[in-house]
Amino acid sequence: MPVWLREDRWRQTASAVYLSLPVRGLRVTPANIFCTDRYLKVSIPPFLFEAILYAPIDDTNSTAKIGNGIIFFTLYKKEAAMWDSLTLANANKEKLQYLRENAVLKAHEKAKEETEAKKVTKQEHKKYALEATMKLEEEERKRIEDLKEKERQKVTKELELWKKQQEDAEKQKRVQKEGELLQEVQQLKEKKKEKMDKTRIPNEGTSKTRIKATKGCCGSYSMFSENLKEEQLPAPRSAATIKINFTSRVFPTALRESRVAEEEEWLRKQAEARRTVSADLSELEDLKEEEKNPDWLKDKGNKMFATGNYLAAVNAYNLAVRLNNKLPLLYLNRAACHLKLRNLHKAIEDSSKALELLTPPVPDNESARVKAYVRRGTAFCQLELYTEGLQDYEAALKIDPKNKNIEKDAEQIRHLIQGTMQVS
C-alpha cells in the first residue's frame, strides 16, 4: 500500500495556483512527477501524492521547482477564475478512474504528437540547411564567375592599351626615319646641283665621271643609311643578381594564407602561460605541452562536465586557473560544477570572481554576466538566502529582460520569500 503525502499547502490567484509539497528526506527527480491539464501525480515509492484538479490548467507553461526538501508547483489556469478547492470534490470512483485513464491517454497522445512534430521540424531544418548550402554555393560560383569576367575585361583592356602604345611607338619611329631619309635625299640633291653648276661644258668623260660620281653618291648613300641603322641599335644590357629574402615565420603556412591576428594572440597566450609556469608552477614540469594551455584545459573541463564527471571538470578548471587567472569563463564554468556538487559557497565565490573579471559591462559579455548572476542566485537560494538570490535574479533580468525562464524563477523566489514571512 502506498503512503499518501498529505502535508501539501496551496494558494491561488485568478490566473495561477501555487502548490508546495514537502518531501524532506526523499530524492526527487523530474521523472517522479506526472502532470496533465486535470491530473497531478508525484510518485516516490512508497510515497504517493495524487490530485484530480478542480479545473483545467495549462500544463505546457506550468512548472515544478525541486529544492530544499520541497516541490513547488506553479500551475497556470486555462480560464481566469477562483477555485473553490484544489481537487475535484464529490467524485465517485468510476469518474476518478476515468479521469486518471484519460490523463494517461492524453499524455501518450501528446508525447506522440511532440515526437512527430520534432521529426517534421528536423526534416524542415535539414531541407532548409540543404537549400541554404545550395544557395551559398550558387552565390559563391556567381561571385567567382564575376571576378573572372572582371579580370578578363581588365586584362583585355590592358592588352589593347599595350598594343596601341606599341603601334604609336612604331608609327613615331617610322615618321622619324622617313624625315631623316628625306633630309639625306635633299642634301644629296643640293650636292649634285653644286657639281652641275661647276661643270659648264659637258663631255663624255665628264658625263661618265658624273655618272660614276652619281653612282658613288648612291653607294655612299646606302653606306650612310646602314651606319644609321647600326647607330640606332641599343647596347646590350648588363647582367645583375637579385637577392630574395623570405620572412621568417613560426607557423608553416604561407603568410597570405594565415590569420596574423589570431596567430599573434595564440603566441601571446602561449608565452604568458610559459612565463607563469616557469615562474610560479615549477612543480608542473612533468605536464605535456598541451596540458599547459589554459584553453585546452577549459575545453577538457567542458567535455568532462558534459559527461557528468564534475570532479574531473573541477580539477581541469583548477589547473587552468593556476595557469591563467584572468579568464572569467574558467570561474564561470567551475561555479556550474560546484553547483552540481553542492559546494554552494565555492559556487558563490567563483560567480563573484567571474563578475569581477567581466568588466566593463559590454554587449559582448552580456550572456556570461547573466549566467554568473543566475548561478550565484541559485547558490544563494539553495542556502535559503532568498533575498540575496532574488537580487541576483533581478540583476540578470535587467541584462536580459526577455528571458522567461529567469522571470519565472524570480517569481517563484518572491513567493517563497512571502511564504517564509507568513510562516514566521
Secondary structure layout:
Blueprint: E1 3-4, E2 9-12, E3 16-22, E4 33-35, E5 39-44, E6 47-52, E7 63-67, E8 70-76, H1 93-198, H2 204-232, H3 260-280, H4 294-306, H5 310-323, H6 328-340, H7 344-357, H8 366-382, H9 386-399, H10 404-423
Parallel strand pairs: 1-6
Antiparallel strand pairs: 2-3, 3-8, 4-5, 5-6, 7-8
Helix pairs in contact: 1-2, 4-5, 4-6, 5-6, 6-7, 6-8, 7-8, 8-9, 9-10
How does this model look, in words?
This protein has helices at residues 93-198, 204-232, 260-280, 294-306, 310-323, 328-340, 344-357, 366-382, 386-399, 404-423; strands at residues 3-4, 9-12, 16-22, 33-35, 39-44, 47-52, 63-67, 70-76. With 424 residues, it is α+β, with helices and mostly antiparallel strands. Among the domains are: 3-90, Immunoglobulin-like, CATH 2.60.40.790; 115-191; 292-418, Tetratricopeptide repeat domain (Serine Threonine Protein Phosphatase 5, Tetratricopeptide repeat, Alpha Horseshoe), CATH 1.25.40. Strands 1-6-5-4 form a four-stranded mixed beta sheet, covered by helices on one side. Helix 7 runs antiparallel to helix 8 (366-382) and helix 8 packs antiparallel against helix 9 (386-399). The protein is elongated. 17% of the residues are buried. Mean pLDDT is 82; it is low at 201-221.
